[in-house]
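Morning F.,

Quick status update on the modeling queue. The single chain you submitted on Monday has been processed. Sequence for confirmation:
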Amino acid sequence: MGGVNVDGGGHGGKKSVDSEIPLIPFIDLLLCCVMFLLVTAVWNKLARIDANQQQPGREAQIDQPPEERIRLFLQVKNTGYVIAGTDGTNIEIPKNGPTYDLEALREKLRDRRTQEPNRRDLIVAPEDGVLYEDVVAAMDLVVGSGYSEMSLSDGAHL
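Structure tokens below.
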């Protein structure tokens, strides 16, 4: 059996201190403690409850579902731009010859901005085959028109 021998010497008329510390049971106890701590640490998350604190003066609106927000898209197609909303609006801006009509897009975005002055989000959805520089030009125009929370999508969900 493994142990540690502590030699006391035994000189000078004193009794020699010779003892063995049982290391294997001590290591077994340590390993059991480590395993117990590892197992209980995993289950720690399941006992947590996420709760929201209601602020005084505000009524809880549990019965009402959240309001469906109308999403606004700018589709960059090979034929031109389309400003579309989930409410069914569709504004088409055809190409001006071989180039995209950025001035018409700026005007339509300005008109849409006057209709909804608090809107900051718009999703740019380019079609396959549209040049990168045309998509970037449209994105720059969108941000410049006041839609600071612009995001880019692949257009598959339209």
